[in-house]
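Folding follows sequence. Below is one example:
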Amino acid sequence: MTKTSIAYFISPHGFGHATRSSAIIRAYLDQAPDTDIHVFTSVPRHCFDDCIANTYHYHYLACDIGYIQASPLTADLPATIAALNRFLPFDDRIVDGTAAIITRAGCDLVICDIAPIGLVVATRSGVPSVLIENFTWNWLYESDVPSYPALERHRCYLADIFKTATHHIQLEPACCPITADLSAPPVWRQPKSSADAVRKQLAIPDSARIVTITLGGTDTDTDPDRWLHRYDDVCFILPGTSHTPLRAGNVIRLPRDSDVYFPDLIASSDVVIGKLGYGTVMEVYAADSVFGYITRNTFRESPILEAFVKTYLRSMKITQKDYENDSWLDIIGTLLALPARAPTMRKNGTDCIAAYLARLSTSPQEQAQAR
């Protein structure tokens, strides 16, 4: 049987695209362990290593813009337009150089979440492509065009590129539902360790409740001293907010490349405070933790994710204003008091996506032999 090789292009906007891509790659390698995976992205390598370490080739590539963030909760549209003006249309030298890499690697398939340059590279190389998305950039930019007309040409350019995908996988909850080649359940990374192991690793007493505060890998201006005196029976964990592990009373700050696997941390938490981003929402959903979710006023995906959260999770809304003025701290007690419920089995979409991709990357001759 011929060894399969796959190129995977991953948007660096937030970490949700990277985390769900890691989960899909992990499931694919579980089914086809001899596959060569080539990851193209500017997301730091450590974001993949915990899930797929030593099983992939990493290629640094600035492959997407998305939005330039003014803060963890706010996009800077003028800066975004300026970045898109520099980035689009794609530089032929970069496209040709990347196409040469995947040709030398013998890649049979190009997968894109939702980095559009991967689709251009696939077309240039004559390799089939797969778009994996729960939204595309042209759909998101559409809502910004009335206020920022300069986005329109970029929206149209990207819309045309997304249409070139040979195959289309759409993840639930989809922002713009279509009849895709595969409609898949939500995707998340599986935990590796138990809650007891996480407590032991972080020296958290059994009597303490755990509240994790995350803004999707970006730093937070939250000052822990504001709640230390109020919640001395709670351990607050702030991942991605320091260069080294730091502990001050009942507050633990962890670096982005922490030894604590993020899905383990979420699964160990009684409450998670975080913004409405796909990666965070789905890992909280998988763990069935209580979710204090922070809305993003101008992000078109937010209402779709909020509807999902309100349907499936014990949750409370924190407005962007309440988060920024710290009045959200008053609801921590309410979140901790939400009643427990019987565990719910959640269906992870990784296995069905991996099986679909395996069929695409198998030659007709090998498919006939398998039958």
Residues 16-31 form the longest helix (16 residues). The domain at 195-337 is CATH 3.40.50.2000 (Rossmann fold). The chain has 16 helices and 16 strands. The longest strand covers residues 5-10.
